[in-house]
């Protein structure tokens, strides 16, 4: 160890004196990868901390109890009041009318206790009670909705059958991040002022939420248990401040985890640069290693010496990467906090930085062990020969085993720390497959180029022939370029294919079959008038169905969540319908539909795909809580339900007698020509102000906007991977400058012009860029197919536009990098170069 330390110290001293000339790419690649992972991890921790700190404010209380389409009765209110202060919130969708203009809004009706936590900021400012009081009653409105309708403070508008006054514009709601996806901007008013609007009727789709301010120090689990004991059959949903915005928290967690995996892909790309830099350094130190062996240095001493040297450089890269990853979120905190829908406590989070440092250290060890192990096999005879390059063959068995252990440790750490082990393993497998494919492609490219260079057909084409000869040569440049650029482009190609398919699913597939309007809150005595719209020549079809909302609480008598897990059908309430006859377009996949006059025990028909995911089989029993009443039925059939058409689709249907007497409304979808949409909305809103019309294209546009933001975030992460690949590419181009200078000198000596030499350089880089791009397109398409089909559950179609951009980008990047390092070799004088080489 003493000898190894001395050698390492002298090598480091000389290296730092030269500005780490041989390790700049090593430092850049490792630093970039660690910084990206550290920055994403820090932002993830900041969001988690912000949600925990502001959980009560986001939720609107220490706890929230929600009832579906009904108000709490006296006994339930008393049970809630026994826990603490209570604020009642009512939310539903409706239409705002101003003259001939109509717009969808999300109504929030509150009491005088609201808000329990946080501040409601209005324009003009003032207390909510004082602002909304008056005749006609006042309401506060989202500025987007007010501007869309041309409303100023003091103007009148109509909700249902009642006139309201715009008393203020909503500048900020303290609890607006926990509700999830809303179809319309907010209108805020008092619950008492809903009287006379006609909007709350039997079967109307609305939710009541009772927010609790609990005494300080209250045990939330104990409070939930007390309420469950007092109200065992009320069918309520409990949430508390420990998870104030569950949908957003889960979304951000999954997105950040995916970005960490993209960062790991970037680290893999950087690892190629690390391996190339170490290999180049060891080749440069061939004479030093041979000299040390000549004077008696053992192989393990040399391995330890250079491992210590590279370990010190790795430590420097880890420090720089962690520091950069900690500083970036702090520097961009105003932008990050402005873009996020939830509060983020931007700070320095040690665990996120340690995680990034762990990934970086393991990646450095993984990619440096192989060239270090090979370097110790350099023989002393190399000192007396013109022997370039590393020894042929594989490292010793112990180093191969150690490499495998490090790889498994890195993948296992990523699987555990990312929180999505399945996706991590798929990512690791995909990266390994892409790595092997690119390595095989580089080998095949070299073989093909070598053979083509010898063909008579290329005689007389000096630039092309020398380019092919260089690509097929033993320099190793082809492998480094194809691997680094190919992996970076593969990640970007996969993201491009996923993005293109998501946009296609929203913007191309749905509009071909989607209805113009989705209408809810249709009372039973109004459905005939809605169906009569089919007589309109500009209306293609009207589909209607009765609808109730219910929560699946038990499967075969057991808690539904315990049986079915975190399936989407068990999260919150689901639409429930009844029908005597089976729709002609619906296919039964198992079991039988009930008879038209069936009046026996309750029967249920369940969506086939969702039933399979839940593990349901014919004969199972389900308990559905509808309006506080438990209704149990036997699953007697499964049927196909296509939710992708934006039409009417129910997971659960029952025989009519099972829901007899339950108050309900109808829903309808109207398929109409675009030019008729405004007229249809105007007529329905005029005749039936209680009916809410949701324009499907607006909903699609909102989803598209959200997906665009997700795609942008992922693309930024993938771009970081490409930047790392570009650094490796530049390093490979710079490392070959000496060889190209000698080559240019030889070509000049035999009469080649500068244009011919430059053409040769450009062609060889274009060939490597084209090869990298082509492989990246196929690998990226395979990855995009896997993510689209198995993770996002959408169909996949190859996007040629994205593929073409990848190929062109690959060629352009290699050309720029190659030509940038071509001017030095072109300017060199042959006599000086050849004399020095002699």
From TrEMBL:
Primary enzyme class: hydrolase
Keywords: ATP-binding, Cell membrane, Hydrolase, Membrane, Nucleotide-binding, Transmembrane, Transmembrane helix
Pfam family, one: MacB_PCD
InterPro entries in UniProt: ABC3_permease_C, MacB_PCD, Membrane_comp_ABC_pdt
Ranges where the MacB-like periplasmic core domain occurs: 28-229
Coiled-coil segments on the chain, per record: none
Subcellular localization, as worded in the UniProt entry: Cell membrane
The organism's place on the tree of life at top rank: Bacteria
Residue intervals passing through the bilayer: 21-43, 255-280, 301-328, 348-370, 399-417, 423-445, 765-791, 803-828
GO molecular function: ATP binding; hydrolase activity
Membrane topology field: Multi-pass membrane protein
Chief location bin: membrane
A single GO cellular-component term on record: plasma membrane
Span of domain ABC3 transporter permease C-terminal: 262-374, 721-823
Catalytic activity, EC: 3.6.3.-
Name of the protein in its database record: Macrolide export ATP-binding/permease protein MacB
């Amino acid at each position: 160890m003493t000898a190894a330390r001395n050698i390492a110290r002298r090598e480091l001293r000389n290296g730092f004196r030269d500005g780490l000339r041989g390790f700049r790419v090593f430092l850049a690649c490792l630093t970039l990868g660690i910084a990206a992972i550290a920055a994403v991890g820090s932002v993830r921790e900041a969001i988690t901390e912000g949600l925990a700190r502001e959980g009560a404010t986001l939720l609107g209380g220490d706890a929230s109890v929600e009832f579906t389409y009904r108000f709490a009765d006296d006994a339930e209110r008393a049970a809630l009041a026994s826990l603490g202060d209570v604020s009642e919130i009512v939310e539903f969708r409706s239409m705002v009318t101003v003259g001939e203009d109509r717009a969808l809004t999300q109504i929030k009706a509150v009491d005088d206790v609201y808000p329990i936590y946080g501040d409601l900021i209005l324009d003009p400012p003032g207390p909510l009670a004082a602002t909304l009081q008056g005749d006609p009653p006042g309401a506060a409105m989202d500025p987007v909705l007010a501007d869309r309708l041309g409303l100023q403070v003091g103007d009148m508008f109509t909700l249902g059958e009642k006139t309201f006054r715009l008393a203020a514009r909503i500048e900020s709601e303290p609890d607006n991040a926990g509700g999830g996806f809303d179809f319309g901007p907010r209108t805020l008013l008092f619950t008492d002022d809903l009287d006379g609007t006609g909007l709350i009727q039997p079967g109307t789709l609305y939710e009541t939420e009772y927010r609790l301010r609990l005494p300080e120090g209250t045990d939330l689990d104990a409070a939930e248990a007390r309420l469950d004991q007092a109200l065992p059959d009320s069918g309520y949903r409990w949430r508390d401040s420990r998870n104030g915005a569950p949908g957003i928290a889960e979304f951000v967690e999954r997105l950040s985890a995916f970005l960490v995996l993209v960062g790991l892909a970037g680290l893999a790309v950087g690892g190629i640069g690390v391996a190339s830099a170490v290999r180049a350094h060891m080749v440069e130190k061939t004479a030093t290693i041979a000299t040390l062996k000549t004077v008696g240095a053992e192989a393990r001493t040399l391995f330890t010496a250079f491992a210590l040297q590279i370990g010190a450089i790795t430590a420097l890269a880890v420090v720089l990467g962690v520091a950069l990853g900690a500083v970036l979120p702090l520097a961009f905190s105003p932008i990050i906090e402005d873009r996020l829908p939830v509060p983020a406590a931007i700070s320095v989070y040690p665990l996120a930085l340690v995680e990034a440092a762990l990934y970086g250290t393991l990646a450095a060890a993984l990619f440096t062990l192989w060239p270090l192990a090979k370097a110790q096999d350099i023989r002393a005879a190399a000192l007396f020969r013109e022997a370039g390059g590393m020894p042929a063959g594989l490292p010793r068995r112990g180093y191969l085993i150690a490499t495998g252990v490090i790889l498994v440790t890195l993948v296992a750490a990523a699987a555990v720390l990312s929180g999505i082990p399945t996706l991590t393993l798929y990512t690791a497998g995909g990266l390994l497959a892409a790595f092997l494919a690119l390595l095989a492609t580089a080998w095949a490219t070299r073989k093909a180029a070598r053979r083509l260079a010898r063909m008579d057909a290329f005689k007389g084409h000096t630039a092309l022939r020398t380019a092919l000869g260089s690509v097929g040569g033993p320099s190793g440049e082809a492998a480094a370029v194809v691997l680094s650029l190919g992996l970076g482009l593969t990640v970007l190609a996969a993201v491009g294919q996923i993005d293109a398919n998501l946009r296609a699913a929203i913007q191309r597939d749905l509009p071909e079959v989607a209805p113009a309007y989705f209408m809810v809150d249709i009372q039973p005595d109004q459905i005939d008038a809605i169906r009569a719209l089919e007589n309109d020549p500009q209306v293609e079809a009207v589909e209607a169905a009765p609808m109730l909302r219910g929560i699946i609480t038990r499967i075969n008598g057991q808690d539904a969540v315990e049986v079915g897990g975190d399936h989407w059908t068990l999260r919150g309430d689901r639409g429930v319908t009844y029908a005597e006859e089976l729709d002609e377009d619906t296919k039964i996949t198992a079991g039988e539909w009930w008879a038209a006059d069936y009046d026996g025990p309750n029967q249920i028909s369940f969506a086939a795909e969702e039933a399979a995911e839940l593990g349901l089989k014919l004969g199972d029993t389900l308990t559905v809580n509808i309006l506080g009443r438990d209704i149990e039925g036997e699953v007697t059939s499964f049927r196909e339900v296509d939710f992708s058409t934006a039409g009417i689709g129910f997971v659960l249907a029952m025989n009519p007698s099972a829901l007899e007497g339950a108050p309900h409304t109808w829903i309808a979808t109207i398929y109409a020509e675009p030019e008729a949409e405004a007229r249809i909305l105007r007529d329905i809103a005029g005749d039936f102000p209680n009916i809410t019309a949701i324009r499907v294209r607006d909903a699609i546009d909102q989803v598209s906007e959200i997906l665009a933001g997700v795609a942008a975030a992922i693309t930024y992460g993938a771009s970081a991977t490409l930047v790392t690949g570009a650094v490796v590419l530049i390093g490979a181009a710079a490392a070959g400058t000496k060889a190209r200078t000698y080559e240019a000198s030889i070509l000049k000596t035999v009469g080649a012009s500068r244009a011919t030499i430059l053409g040769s350089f450009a062609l060889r880089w274009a060939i490597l860029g084209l090869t990298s791009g082509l492989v990246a397109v196929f690998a990226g398409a395979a990855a995009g197919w896997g993510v689209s089909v198995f993770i996002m559950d959408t169909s996949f179609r190859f996007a040629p536009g994205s593929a073409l951009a990848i190929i062109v980008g690959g060629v352009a990047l290699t050309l720029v990098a190659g030509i940038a390092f071509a001017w030095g070799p072109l300017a060199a004088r042959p006599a000086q170069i050849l004399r020095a080489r002699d």
